[in-house]
Design a protein that fits this description.
Blueprint: H1 8-14, E1 21-24, E2 28-32, E3 40-46, H2 53-56, H3 60-76, E4 84-86, H4 90-93, E5 102-106
Antiparallel strand pairs: 1-2, 2-3, 3-5, 4-5
The structure holds adenosine monophosphate and zinc ion.
Amino acid sequence: MHTPADCLFCAIVDGGIPADVVWRDDEFLAFRDINPQAPLHVLVIPQLHRADAGELAADPALAGRWIAAAAHVAGLLGAAQGYRLVANTGPDGGQTVDHAHLHVLAGRPMRWPPG
Ligand code: AMP
Ligand code: ZN
Protein backbone atom coordinates (compact mmCIF):
# COMPACT_ATOMS: atom_id res chain seq x y z
CA MET A 1 0.00 0.00 0.00
CA HIS A 2 1.03 3.56 -0.65
CA THR A 3 0.20 6.57 1.49
CA PRO A 4 -1.84 8.53 2.28
CA ALA A 5 -4.86 6.23 2.26
CA ASP A 6 -7.21 8.90 0.92
CA CYS A 7 -5.03 9.84 -2.07
CA LEU A 8 -6.77 9.26 -5.41
CA PHE A 9 -3.56 8.67 -7.36
CA CYS A 10 -2.13 6.35 -4.70
CA ALA A 11 -5.34 4.35 -5.12
CA ILE A 12 -4.69 4.19 -8.88
CA VAL A 13 -1.13 2.99 -8.24
CA ASP A 14 -2.49 0.31 -5.92
CA GLY A 15 -5.15 -0.76 -8.43
CA GLY A 16 -8.09 0.11 -6.17
CA ILE A 17 -9.33 2.68 -8.69
CA PRO A 18 -9.11 1.77 -12.37
CA ALA A 19 -7.17 3.86 -14.87
CA ASP A 20 -6.22 3.65 -18.53
CA VAL A 21 -2.55 2.89 -17.93
CA VAL A 22 -0.34 3.52 -20.97
CA TRP A 23 3.10 2.90 -19.49
CA ARG A 24 4.82 2.11 -16.25
CA ASP A 25 8.22 1.27 -14.88
CA ASP A 26 9.33 0.50 -11.35
CA GLU A 27 9.10 4.17 -10.29
CA PHE A 28 6.41 5.89 -12.36
CA LEU A 29 2.95 5.27 -13.77
CA ALA A 30 1.39 6.97 -16.82
CA PHE A 31 -2.36 6.92 -17.46
CA ARG A 32 -4.84 8.87 -19.56
CA ASP A 33 -6.47 11.91 -17.96
CA ILE A 34 -10.16 11.29 -17.32
CA ASN A 35 -11.00 14.79 -18.64
CA PRO A 36 -8.61 15.24 -21.59
CA GLN A 37 -7.70 18.77 -22.66
CA ALA A 38 -5.94 17.68 -25.85
CA PRO A 39 -6.10 14.68 -28.22
CA LEU A 40 -3.30 13.17 -26.14
CA HIS A 41 -3.47 13.91 -22.41
CA VAL A 42 -1.61 11.61 -20.05
CA LEU A 43 -0.58 12.03 -16.42
CA VAL A 44 2.81 10.76 -15.27
CA ILE A 45 3.04 10.19 -11.52
CA PRO A 46 5.60 8.81 -9.08
CA GLN A 47 4.37 5.54 -7.61
CA LEU A 48 5.51 6.68 -4.16
CA HIS A 49 3.41 9.53 -2.82
CA ARG A 50 4.81 13.05 -3.25
CA ALA A 51 2.35 15.88 -2.62
CA ASP A 52 3.48 18.10 -5.48
CA ALA A 53 6.30 18.89 -7.87
CA GLY A 54 8.21 20.84 -5.24
CA GLU A 55 8.18 17.95 -2.81
CA LEU A 56 9.23 15.55 -5.55
CA ALA A 57 12.04 17.89 -6.61
CA ALA A 58 13.57 17.62 -3.15
CA ASP A 59 15.17 14.61 -4.86
CA PRO A 60 16.60 16.23 -8.01
CA ALA A 61 17.59 12.90 -9.54
CA LEU A 62 14.01 11.67 -9.15
CA ALA A 63 12.75 14.90 -10.74
CA GLY A 64 15.04 14.30 -13.69
CA ARG A 65 13.78 10.76 -14.14
CA TRP A 66 10.19 12.06 -13.88
CA ILE A 67 10.72 14.43 -16.80
CA ALA A 68 12.55 11.72 -18.74
CA ALA A 69 9.59 9.39 -18.14
CA ALA A 70 7.16 12.03 -19.45
CA ALA A 71 9.31 12.61 -22.55
CA HIS A 72 9.47 8.85 -23.09
CA VAL A 73 5.67 8.56 -22.87
CA ALA A 74 5.23 11.46 -25.32
CA GLY A 75 7.44 9.66 -27.82
CA LEU A 76 5.79 6.33 -27.18
CA LEU A 77 2.35 7.79 -27.93
CA GLY A 78 3.46 9.53 -31.10
CA ALA A 79 3.69 13.20 -30.15
CA ALA A 80 5.81 13.85 -33.24
CA GLN A 81 4.91 17.56 -33.48
CA GLY A 82 5.82 18.26 -29.89
CA TYR A 83 4.11 18.28 -26.55
CA ARG A 84 3.62 20.31 -23.41
CA LEU A 85 4.56 19.25 -19.89
CA VAL A 86 2.63 20.92 -17.06
CA ALA A 87 2.94 20.50 -13.30
CA ASN A 88 0.18 22.55 -11.69
CA THR A 89 1.48 23.19 -8.19
CA GLY A 90 -0.48 24.53 -5.24
CA PRO A 91 -3.70 26.55 -5.21
CA ASP A 92 -2.54 29.32 -7.55
CA GLY A 93 -1.07 26.70 -9.85
CA GLY A 94 -4.47 25.07 -10.19
CA GLN A 95 -3.48 21.77 -8.57
CA THR A 96 -6.58 19.72 -7.75
CA VAL A 97 -5.03 16.33 -6.89
CA ASP A 98 -2.39 16.40 -4.17
CA HIS A 99 -0.16 13.70 -5.63
CA ALA A 100 2.51 15.03 -7.97
CA HIS A 101 1.64 14.57 -11.63
CA LEU A 102 3.06 15.79 -14.92
CA HIS A 103 0.47 16.48 -17.58
CA VAL A 104 1.66 15.41 -21.04
CA LEU A 105 -0.46 17.28 -23.58
CA ALA A 106 -0.13 16.80 -27.34
CA GLY A 107 -1.98 16.36 -30.60
CA ARG A 108 -2.84 20.01 -31.21
CA PRO A 109 -0.97 23.33 -31.16
CA MET A 110 -0.85 24.74 -27.62
CA ARG A 111 -1.64 28.35 -26.83
CA TRP A 112 0.40 30.74 -24.73
CA PRO A 113 -0.05 32.18 -22.15
CA PRO A 114 -2.04 29.52 -20.33
CA GLY A 115 -5.10 30.64 -18.37
P1 AMP B 1 -4.47 19.09 -11.64
O1 AMP B 1 -5.72 19.91 -11.76
O2 AMP B 1 -3.27 19.67 -12.31
O3 AMP B 1 -4.22 18.70 -10.20
O4 AMP B 1 -4.75 17.75 -12.45
C1 AMP B 1 -5.50 16.69 -11.97
C2 AMP B 1 -5.96 15.92 -13.16
O5 AMP B 1 -6.40 14.66 -12.72
C3 AMP B 1 -7.12 16.59 -13.91
O6 AMP B 1 -6.71 16.86 -15.24
C4 AMP B 1 -8.22 15.53 -13.84
O7 AMP B 1 -8.98 15.45 -15.03
C5 AMP B 1 -7.43 14.27 -13.59
N1 AMP B 1 -8.15 13.19 -12.93
C6 AMP B 1 -8.93 13.27 -11.82
N2 AMP B 1 -9.39 12.07 -11.48
C7 AMP B 1 -8.89 11.18 -12.39
C8 AMP B 1 -9.01 9.78 -12.57
N3 AMP B 1 -9.75 8.99 -11.75
N4 AMP B 1 -8.36 9.21 -13.62
C9 AMP B 1 -7.63 9.96 -14.46
N5 AMP B 1 -7.46 11.29 -14.33
C10 AMP B 1 -8.10 11.90 -13.31
ZN1 ZN C 1 -0.67 9.74 -3.43
